[in-house]
Amino acid sequence: MIIGKYSSDLSRFKAVFFIHFLLILNLHSVLADDVEIHDGRSSAFKKGSEIIERAKSGDVLWVGTYIFQNDRVGDHRIGELIDAAKRGVDVRLIVDWSGNELPQSKLTYLVENGVKVKFYNPLRFVNPIQLNHRMHSKFIVLNNETLIGDRNIGAEYSNFVRNSKTGREIYIKGKSVGSLQVMANEIWDDPVSIDINSRPIRDVERSKIRSEIAVGRKDFPDTPGSPASRFSTDNISFVYDKPSARGSGRGVSSELFSMIAEADEAITIVSPYLVLTDELESTLKLLKENRPNVKIRFITNSLRSTDVRLTSLAHHGDRHRLAKLGVDVYETLFQLHEKTVIVDQNIVFNGSYNFDSRSQNINVEMGTIIRSAELGKAAEESVNRRLKRSVRTVAEGRVVARVKRCFLEVLGRTVTKFSAIRNQL
């Protein structure tokens, strides 16, 4: 009898334990967000298209970009936004005024077809001094899903033209996206976000726009947005700079410097535009003093691959300062555009932030920080593939570039001595 009772209690305990285990698994699946990495070919743009296509009547769709190019990729996205507006979606497109390449007629055509369009910080006589303050963020937000990263809207950012820029986007679906909706809405409602001044357009212009959109939609690769990797996690946070904030210590830079300071083993910083600020230099110097064995590497554009020569010249002038910090620097032979930070292969930032003065002190930046060993490993593997087409220029405390003291480096040092110039890079 005692043995039978013991067996019965043990069976009951196993059953209860199994049920609790299943409940924990189910709770994790409910709380965890789905995450995808998109860093190849047209994957990210197509994923954005899928999000837009899922928007239905009554939904609010936010689309933000620093640059909106007037090409077939831009036309394709315009067509998608108009289709969504016709389905009854509240479509809100915000474009940085300085990065907009769409003609006034296309902007008006968007408004005519139900898309709400705003410029971020357009030229005004109210405060022209603040004209250098730009919205550098890139995002699509719909309900509980988002696509966030570094890609603008245009062919050269979507791998549809030769020598297009590399990029990395993170797709997230889950409860954490609610905080990003608040951020997007705050940018939309900010006083410097101004409705565009639409003007009447002629029928011939309207007909031409329809034709260009039709070509853009038809001439687009019909491939799904396949991710490089996919996983789930419940440790996601979104960071961004409030539009009204200025100077160092703002949202994104503060979070990133704190994240870097946590490193115990290794840091990888991918930044297409790299200018060593005093704050970054002091953060890395303190880290090296406290944990000298932490390996730090930067990946950035070379003077050959960059599209912003002045920033690259500034980086040339910084090479010896970077060498003194004991970091490695790799310069790419292709156009790098992704912005990623990986700490100990466990904490990953991905977004719009460049390690330069503008992102640190001036622009509105946005990104996500995810604590996940799975994402850390996948991001490191992606970066290592990039390194196969890169040259190490700083290593083991010295500049190892073929020409150490070339004219360009001297010019870079000269340029960056002027703080008025350096603080705008």
List the helices and strands and how they pair.
Elements: H1 2-31, E1 33-38, H2 43-54, E2 60-65, H3 72-86, E3 90-96, H4 104-112, E4 116-120, E5 139-142, E6 145-149, E7 169-173, H5 177-189, E8 193-195, H6 203-218, E9 229-233, E10 236-240, H7 251-261, E11 266-270, H8 278-290, E12 295-301, H9 309-324, E13 328-332, E14 340-343, E15 347-351, H10 357-361, E16 366-371, H11 373-387, E17 390-395, E18 398-399, H12 407-416, H13 419-422
Parallel strand pairs: 2-3, 3-4, 11-12, 12-13
Antiparallel strand pairs: 1-7, 1-9, 2-5, 4-8, 5-6, 6-7, 10-16, 11-14, 13-17, 14-15, 15-16, 17-18
Helix pairs in contact: 3-6, 9-12
Description:
This protein is an alpha+beta fold and 425 residues long. The protein folds into 2 domains: 33-218, Endonuclease, Chain A; 235-422, 2-Layer Sandwich (Endonuclease, Chain A). The protein has 13 helices and 18 strands. The protein has helices at 2-31, 43-54, 72-86, 104-112, 177-189, 203-218, 251-261, 278-290, 309-324, 357-361, 373-387, 407-416, 419-422, and strands at 33-38, 60-65, 90-96, 116-120, 139-142, 145-149, 169-173, 193-195, 229-233, 236-240, 266-270, 295-301, 328-332, 340-343, 347-351, 366-371, 390-395, 398-399. It has a 9-stranded mixed beta sheet, with helices on both faces. The protein has a 9-stranded mixed beta sheet with strand order 10-16-15-14-11-12-13-17-18, with helices on both faces. The longest helix has 30 residues, at 2-31. The protein is globular.
